Amino acid sequence: MILFQCDYNEGAHPRVMEKLLETNLEQTVGYGEDGHCARAAGLIRKACGDDTLAVHFLVGGTQTNMTVIAAALRPHQGVIAAQTGHINCHETGAVESTGHKVLALPHQDGKIGAAQVEALCEAHLQDASFEHTVQPKMVYISNPTEYGTLYGRKELEELSAVCRKYGLYLFLDGARLGYGLAAADNELDLPCLAACCDVFYIGGTKVGALFGEAVVISNDELKKDFRYLIKQKGGMLAKGRLLGVQFEALFEDGLYLEISRHADRLADKLREAFRQAGFPMLAESRTNQIFPVMPDALLKELAGRYGFSYQERVDETHSAVRFCTSWATKEENIDRLIADLKRMRQAV
Amino acid sequence: MILFQCDYNEGAHPRVMEKLLETNLEQTVGYGEDGHCARAAGLIRKACGDDTLAVHFLVGGTQTNMTVIAAALRPHQGVIAAQTGHINCHETGAVESTGHKVLALPHQDGKIGAAQVEALCEAHLQDASFEHTVQPKMVYISNPTEYGTLYGRKELEELSAVCRKYGLYLFLDGARLGYGLAAADNELDLPCLAACCDVFYIGGTKVGALFGEAVVISNDELKKDFRYLIKQKGGMLAKGRLLGVQFEALFEDGLYLEISRHADRLADKLREAFRQAGFPMLAESRTNQIFPVMPDALLKELAGRYGFSYQERVDETHSAVRFCTSWATKEENIDRLIADLKRMRQAV
Amino acid sequence: MILFQCDYNEGAHPRVMEKLLETNLEQTVGYGEDGHCARAAGLIRKACGDDTLAVHFLVGGTQTNMTVIAAALRPHQGVIAAQTGHINCHETGAVESTGHKVLALPHQDGKIGAAQVEALCEAHLQDASFEHTVQPKMVYISNPTEYGTLYGRKELEELSAVCRKYGLYLFLDGARLGYGLAAADNELDLPCLAACCDVFYIGGTKVGALFGEAVVISNDELKKDFRYLIKQKGGMLAKGRLLGVQFEALFEDGLYLEISRHADRLADKLREAFRQAGFPMLAESRTNQIFPVMPDALLKELAGRYGFSYQERVDETHSAVRFCTSWATKEENIDRLIADLKRMRQAV
Amino acid sequence: MILFQCDYNEGAHPRVMEKLLETNLEQTVGYGEDGHCARAAGLIRKACGDDTLAVHFLVGGTQTNMTVIAAALRPHQGVIAAQTGHINCHETGAVESTGHKVLALPHQDGKIGAAQVEALCEAHLQDASFEHTVQPKMVYISNPTEYGTLYGRKELEELSAVCRKYGLYLFLDGARLGYGLAAADNELDLPCLAACCDVFYIGGTKVGALFGEAVVISNDELKKDFRYLIKQKGGMLAKGRLLGVQFEALFEDGLYLEISRHADRLADKLREAFRQAGFPMLAESRTNQIFPVMPDALLKELAGRYGFSYQERVDETHSAVRFCTSWATKEENIDRLIADLKRMRQAV
């Protein structure tokens, strides 16, 4: 059985493990105030081209989203997101558990646009009973999205502009950011994210680390007292240096993008094979998540040999599923799956 | 500089690291539903002598406390704890952030007694305006406590009995449980904890793991839907098997107690040296935390060579501080410190 | 200027005021534990035909919704509601502020159906990552709805059945319940509500009282400790007897339904006049809220003489607005408005 | 049976009732945006001598405390209060239910002092792990306190100064403010409260109104979006004008202080009688709450004829109880009680 259902089926990239092993018996202070965290934060600031950024390391994605959002909002304020956004669908109401409504908007392949945000803000401002509705104060987007798609540079700049116009924070969830930055059709880079967003995070868990997300804050308002919030929401790792060490490994010599490119290349190869075999995609993307639409009968057959995850029903006899590649995916496994797809095409 | 300020200055015990390395490229499903977690849970159930226990793995202590308490209480209910309890003092109000009041009681060297709990419950029941006050519904204790002290078997059984009498849950925070179970004056064991408590946790972060706490639930009411709560509170690790693997290493052949004994032995040795040098203890204990009371001048001198943490001011010229040993403490470092203490005694 | 924008433009029905005046200098204990509250609760239990019901009096609707929902749900549970439901739209995220997600469903004229609830529950149960999504545990409906429409008896019974099948609580918001029960096309009565719902409330604020909502709980699980929750959420009125006195006035000799009928009759008359004048309705209903669709130019003209509230844009030149009647509406004012509508028709 | 257990045993002062009756059939807009609320706010601003103050009307005390505190604090921040403070003892954890810890300090007859606040702030700032503890951000005091005592002008100014020094908000709970301002030993007035506090409230529920508290905000930071918070926390009364009308009655010609003086005069008379009869006071005060310490046997006897509330056990045979006067207390009832006390003295 070969698992493709997600990008966290394995542990960490060997160079990350090596570094953890090397530093294992070093003595450092706790809670992320050690030299490794300081150095990793410096590497990220440098990669973003802005040495005023605050950088904090948390353990996982839901925790990071919940902490950032709770830190930013007053009780009557909500966060705008795509209906398909991770915070709206797959975090067991973590954001609501901190008291805030997710203001869900219809999505286009996982994305939302500046015009939608503007319309929602205008509707709030013009509502005579505006104080009876949640005040929009933040926009949450994910890049790559839950459909593997990417925001173009113009799309991001427009979202940023509309957020500034209406006094909203822009927060980008980069749980799979590496696979976005390394994609063939990517238009973004870290300096542009730091400039457009008030806060974003660089995902480690799905991109080579055992675990860990690096939160990058550019807006001074959001920097204030952020460590209190990390502690309160349960995200302050006692041995915080584990996060620093891992992000050092990922950022000191380009490992983060190198392994992301590997995953994206294999995804492109696999995607092409699905297409050749006659299976359309639920959404177009060049990142590490692939969403082929297949007949249920063939999916059942595939499920005997491969792990993949169910996405959604398309019609009575077809479903969309998700295959992920990652830094850990072996080309031989992709080739084996491609051979099976070729055979299936013949069968069809 | 040798660090003694806490028991999380290093990474993980080499045997834990080895196991993480060995399993690193295995493919498993995420979120703790893998074979390693299942096996580790089985080992813990076996060590507790009760195969009906629910066992869950979380990342850190504050997160665990917050999740267990939020899972157990309705909005109007509070949790009784010693004023010195970790949830009351050192978690940035994490429990309150989930909506619950900590009902703090005076402590005796970090402990609270059954009579105190009974008195609080009786006062609540007899209060004519009881509905205007928080309803006590859980008792939180830590063992070892924040002062390194231990509950005796009778003390724990009495607390358990009073909790059952008044319909309260008993929750034991075992962040340093190994150092308690291995202490010379310990009277408890895992089966007794499982029998007395409704829920408790076995700390890994401070006892040999990179991170990780194993929550053990015996009360069926508290088992229901617990994984939803883990996810919502940000504690569901994507690569959950990392927790399983580490607890396998700690529990498959007695490593957990073995390394705890090491730490306790060195603590006993160091404690004796403090005493010999004329420095009294803030609280009596045989676990890995030592709280000597020393003149500020000598502390300043020690601080040049050793890391330790400040506990509290005792009088105008003396303070209590904390030295911790751990699974990672080297005997040579203890000896070096003892030599310095001997010299100081001569100086006094 | 004659105000029709809501059903709380005036104070209380004169018989309610009279009773408040009569009892004003009586001495009673506070917080709803007085004889008036007891008697009013008894009258409501009798009207519901079930003397096991718990009855509590709160001040306002948002407060009541928030308190009932927070009392019923565990942290990972959410409440299903129509997208147009008051809790989803017009309470500034009060439900989310207590930690719970509103699971919004598309509506049919303000209503949701049993099949929708069933589909949502099934999707949750069949989701492989169900623990990563909010668990549905309650269904919230309003009757009359925010569009003035009513649930039929069969619709309510089906909702009740599906809730029981999936272990959900059914909660009916009766802020305008009187206007529903008195409507020409109503099929429900209080005994049927008490039998179908786990909890519902009988609105006083909009139906003759100065303020006040009577919560009726039939499910024993929801009865437990409810007064603690009222206190914690700020709804326990010091002079609780004010609520008891008002509900005595409304329920001791049929005043509640009598004044509701008055409002519904005038609404029917006005609705017919809108239709005669050629203005269609946004939604069909026979209760006290009327939602005519009119040309913006005519609305502007009407706005000079009458207060009404804006509902939604229908097309570029037409909007839907809301006119309400109430226990306090004077027939002469309705007649004056009808005369204006007739003139407008001629103008069109 | 004559009730003295609280100051909300009756309805409203007749002049308040009259005004409610007079305005009952007026048509106004809802939610406090009517002319009565505007006029009442103006009267209060004038009485405070500051026309920049924001004034909002809420229904009850717990609701007001919860709303003000939730509006002011970020998630990691707590509110300092006396251990006896209403928010710490008698609101079923309402403040914690909004996510915030109450940082309780020892009290002196219900009061806390500037030096205590300073010490707590300094301890927080100097704690090496300050981010692991709740950040103090607000000081809550009540005046009169829960023991009927009053802050002197110098005490209040010192608290205000220490709050400004450490960036804390000062919030004064004036549930019984009238009885404080009218007391023989009072040193404060409304302008001084508006100058010293960032926010305070003028209690109506216990001082002549059916219900209602007027929140007065002087700090601009706290003014922002306050109405959203009122709505979210369930305190926005649909017929908001009821609050405006009542505060108009209380403030348009001095009724508020006039009726407070009445209560204080009768309390002084009763207090003197207790003393004459040989019963000491638990705390010294000149406001409307009296806390005599009496033998349990005599209390039992008194309980047959008078309502009073239990305060606390003093020794094995004595308890402190509370008698309240109010705007509604009749002198003949005080005289009757005094006669009984005289008789009891003879009996002792």
Which sheet architecture does the biggest sheet of chain A show? 7 strands, mixed
Which residues of chain A form runs of ≥5 with pLDDT under 50? none
> Percentage of helical residues of chain A?
40-55%
Counting DSSP E segments of at least 2 residues, the number of strands of chain A comes to 13
Report the end-to-end length of chain A measured between terminal Cα atoms: 24 Å
Strand residue percentage of chain A: 15-25%
Question: Strands of the biggest beta sheet of chain A: in what spatial order?
Answer: 2-8-7-6-5-3-4
Helices and strands of chain A, in N-to-C order? Answer: EHHEHEHHEHEHEHHEEHHHHEEHEEEH
The residue-averaged pLDDT of chain A reads 97
**Molecular shape of chain A:** globular
* Most extensive chain interface and residues per partner: A-B, 53 and 52 residues
Number of helices of chain A: 15
Q: Kindly report the oligomeric state of this protein.
A: homotetramer
Integer-rounded radius of gyration of chain A: 21 Å
Helix/strand structural class of chain A: alpha/beta
What are its keywords?
homotetramer; 348 residues; alpha/beta; seven-stranded mixed β-sheet; four-stranded antiparallel β-sheet; 43% helix
